[in-house]
Amino acid sequence: MKTLAKAALFALAASFPLLAAAHKAFLLPSATVLSDGDDAWITVDAAVSNDLFEFNHFPLALDGLAITAPDGARVEPENVGNGKWRNTFDVHLTHQGTYKIAVSTDGAFATYEDANGEKKRARGDAATIAQRIPAGAKNVEITQAQNTVETFVTLGKPNDLALKPSGRGLEFVPVTAPNDLFAGETASFRFLLDGKPAAGIKVSAIRGGTRYRDAPDELTATTDADGKFSLTWPVAGPYWLSASTEGGTPTLANAKTRRAGCTVTLDVLP
Amino acid sequence: MRMLAVSALLFGLFALPAGAASVDLTVEIPRLDVAEYHRPYVAVWIEREDHAVAANLAVWYQAKNGKDAKSGKSESGTKWLADLRQWWRRSGREQTLPIDGVTGATRPAGQHQLHFDAGKPPLAGLPAGSYKLVVEAAREEGGHELVAVPFAWPPQKPEHLSAQGEHELGALRLDLNP
Asked: Which of A133, A188, A212, A243 has the most C-beta neighbours closer than 10 Å?
């Protein structure tokens, strides 16, 4: 029972960006800029944690993992491991260019009153949420929660084929190449919501190593009319960038609202 | 007539872009007293004001596959080229390695002299302007350092420029000969 509750809580944390605000979901690659020809390996940690980039809360489920190679092809993860605090997998890089590694979830949760007038909740994914609500339920409210947790690595010369937006949910679109980030420099990116510029969205970036300092040292920005924003990295390190919005139309037919979130691990070099 | 000849001579002197000019460069790799010493990877290049690379002068790295001392596994020497972070982003990742006349094996501690003539690669065709000579070093299980010296090309008179590294690089001397 305890395990079940915990699993449910995890599903909740992983699916809902707003609820997950205190729990930071991330993918942490072992290297982001690689130079070894056409046969390189990285390993990636996947976790949901309170601190960056520690493993102290839950492993990040890899069900929605998609690795896109520089030529646009899908790559399967290797040596997948499921741990108590984190999941891990390796990626064999065999193409020159930029890889996108992303875990996407299309979750949903519902509140309703059952036949006895008791308030109940149900959660699942977009495809199954309707089946989890008993017939005869009243005041059904369904919220769709689309979330993406992603990172980028580049072998050799960067390219942007794997970075093309899909048009679904809140998407991070690099303007500055995502593996060309250096301390003291300014980088620009865009957020799109369902393929259109996501204007007025608050963006936060927190550098890893929070457990060794008192202040969160959060960088913030707001997207402009074009969905664009810029950040100047004060120091090198892995940064956890996140944004979420309740705007846009749900793609789930019977959902009343839709929450879309996106978190990105960006490696800033000295 | 005499005036004309003199001005023609002067004109000729200044108009000559870099005909006979040359560059002598001394890069010092410091001797370090550390438990496990590996020769550093070093890149030497000329950078434009916008940081674009105008010419690669030297890249010293392990071109052949080596064996990892601990695991005994064969490892590509290019794996650590990305540790020359600035060179890699500005030029390295665009190149097909090795680069003829530029790349070579890692070098031991000491002073290394390099000579380049204006008319020959990699300096041939370098337009007049403001540049920086940049030297970057990265050492396995060690540090990283970048030292730069600004200069104008072509030199109008002999110039002796220098900079001093602090840990991974020693003295850097740039002698420009018109």
From this structure: A243
Query: Which is it for the CA torsion B134, B135, B140, B141, positive or negative?
Result: negative
Inform me whether the pLDDT recorded for B11 exceeds 80. Answer: no
β partners of residue A34: A155
pLDDT digits (tens, 9 = 90+) for A14-31: 444 444 445 899 999 999
* A37, A156, A269 member nearest B76 (Cβ): A37
Tens digit of each residue's pLDDT (9 = 90 or more) over A203-257:
999 999 999 999 989 999 999 999 999 999 999 999 999 999 997 889 888 899 9
ipTM, interface predicted TM-score of the complex: 0.84
Segment B48-59 mean pLDDT: 97
Q: Which of B133, B156, B146, B8 is nearest to B84 (CA)?
A: B146
In a mutational test of the A interface, the residue from B41, B64, B68, B79 whose CB has the highest number of chain A CBs within 10 Å is B79
Q: Measure A36 CA to nearest chain B CA, in Å.
A: 4
Beta-bridge partners for A107: A125, A145
Q: Which helix (H) or strand (E) holds B130?
A: strand B129-138
Chain A residues whose CB is inside 8 A of the B81 CB are 35
Say what the alpha-carbon torsion angle A157, A171, A89, A12 is, to the nearest 10 degrees: 170
Residue B129 · residue B18 · CB < 8 Å: no
Chain A residues whose beta carbon lies within 8 Å of the beta carbon of residue B66: none
Q: Considering the entire predicted model, what is its pTM?
A: 0.88
Positive or negative, the CA dihedral A128, A132, A137, A143 is negative
Tokens of A102: 């992303």
Which residues of chain B make contact with A42, given a CB cutoff of 8 A?
none
How many C-alpha atoms does B30 have within 13 Å on its Cβ side? Answer: 19
**Could you tell me which residues of chain B have a Cβ less than 8 Å from any Cβ in chain A?**
76, 78-82, 85, 88-89, 92-94, 144
Quote the CA–CA distance of A94 and A112 in Å, as a whole number: 50
Secondary element (H or E) of residue B110: strand B110-117
CB B22 within 8 A of CB B178: no
